[in-house]
Amino acid sequence: MGLGQRVILPGGARPAGAPSESLCPACGELAALLEAAWRVRAERFPPEIRFVRPEATLSVSLTGTGCRLGCAHCGGHYLRRMAPLSEALEGSSPRSAAATSFLVSGGCLESGAVPFGPALPELRRLKSRGRLNFHVGLVGEAGARSLEGLADAVSFDLVGDDSTIREVLGLDRTVSDYRDSLRALRRHVRVVPHILVGLHGGVLRGERAAVELAASEGCEELVFIVLIPTPGTRFEACRPPAAEDVVSLIAETRVALPSAALGLGCMRPGGTYRSKLDPLAVRAGVQTLVQPSPQAIREAGALGLAPAWSRECCVL
After folding, report:
1. Which residue segments constitute the domains of the chain, with CATH numbers given?
2. What is the pLDDT of residues 249-298, one digit of tens each?
3. In this structure, are residues 113 and 143 in contact, taking their beta carbons and an 8 Å threshold?
């Protein structure tokens, strides 16, 4: 099935707004799905996997710690770890001096856009220091056009459920706005949609719709990330989605989009959760895995996949 066609996920996609249904490995459903996904991966791609430790990519916030949205899953928490643009430009710290690429991000305006426009002159200077991956939020045609020749990639967070956009992100926008932004960006730059599994407080709601939307727009790359219940946010007491539910989504996508490049990105819970999820994701057919657990590395070896290691952001 081509990526330009409408995707019908195996077993039928759950409707947006429906709660996730956990798959029990013991019942054989997940095992059968993983077997089908692995068969597609083995037939379509070489026996290789890219493992990423992105220490050479510096995350830069254009807004400092400020964000107008205060999303339930983030609340500005992740902005605190990012460097200011001035530090990245000057190479004034060990982390910025060692960087060979940059993730340009920041807090959002009430419109859902990261205000990168005023910083374009400085960002063109930063381009001389390394490749640029952007988080831009929702953009229009003019904003997308301004990234042409500047952005090596845009990691675009794609949401497939209107209630999640309102209740979690606090935006008076709809899935159609995300579709329009995706279309505008793809006219000018390389776009890698990111789908945050469990964004609605750990419940799957709209993730499959987001996969279908990306496929219908012709996207050939997808990165999955997973909700981290983060202290100090409204979702700190939530549980992340079951690892089986995450990997079933990845495996379904692998089967439905046999030619797409799939990755499991850096945002996902650690510890025992990652130890369980990562090897299953390898079996589900991802080609890229960020900060892999030891279990994932062993699983890749057992499956005959040759590892290639990268030090920059997974979309670069």
Report:
1. 25-310 (3.20.20.70)
2. 999 999 999 999 999 999 999 999 999 999 999 999 999 999 999 999 99
3. yes
